[in-house]
Design a protein that fits this description.
By secondary structure, the protein is of the alpha/beta class. The protein contains 2 helices and 7 strands; from the N terminus they run αβββββββα. A hairpin with a 6-residue loop joins strand 5 and strand 6.
């Protein structure tokens, strides 16, 4: 009899532990979106710049879902865009996905990971409901570096030309000042018009 009571109490603790675990799972899962309803949105890109599965999806800075998959399409849907990114977005944010939207890949911080940012569009590219939305490709750091390098070279060249023009202007200014000084000296001495006599 004594053993049965121990078994009953052990079983009761086990059931209590499972119930507490499930309640905790659903509370945390609901907060993190694990148990919430979701819908999928497909976006096509030509380059994803290292975007990975599980990356956050944000609407105007608010986390609303994750990247569910990144894969190549069999056919090119739009010229040079053949990578499909499937976004898993919490259903409670579906009203924010109405209207014209821009889908872009951004970097979180300076050295952070990639994420998808969804913002209201200034163009009318993704206004109609279609199977695929068209995404903006991420900035390529290599291209940006080359652009900055070219800009720096152009500025250096411009600065050299300005310096040369300033040297020429200084010579002209010196020559004009010397001529004015000579004229002033001749006017004071009264010898300016001696040339014409």
């Amino acid at each position: 009899m004594h053993d049965r009571i121990k078994e009953f109490i052990a079983g009761l603790f086990f059931v209590f532990g499972v119930v507490v675990f499930l309640i905790t799972f659903f509370i945390i899962g609901n907060d993190k979106g694990i148990t919430s309803l979701k819908f999928k949105k497909k976006v096509i890109f030509s380059d994803v710049g290292g975007l990975s599965i599980g990356a956050p999806v944000r609407i105007s800075g608010v986390n609303v879902g994750i990247v569910e998959s990144v894969d190549f399409t069999k056919d090119e849907i739009i010229k040079n865009k053949n990578i499909v990114v499937v976004l898993s977005i919490l259903s409670k944010y579906s009203p924010q996905l109405k209207g014209c939207l821009d889908y872009s890949i951004r970097t979180e911080g300076v050295l952070g990971g990639k994420l998808i940012e969804i913002k209201p569009s200034k163009s009318y590219q993704n206004c109609q409901e279609a199977e695929f939305a068209i995404g903006e490709d991420p900035l390529d750091i290599q291209d940006l570096t080359v652009s900055f390098d070219n800009t720096a070279k152009s500025l250096t060249s411009l600065s050299q030309k300005i310096e040369d023009y300033l040297k020429q202007l200084s010579k002209i200014s010196f020559t004009i000042k010397r001529t004015i000084d000579r004229l002033e000296k001749r006017i004071i001495e009264g010898t300016l018009f001696n040339i014409f006599k």
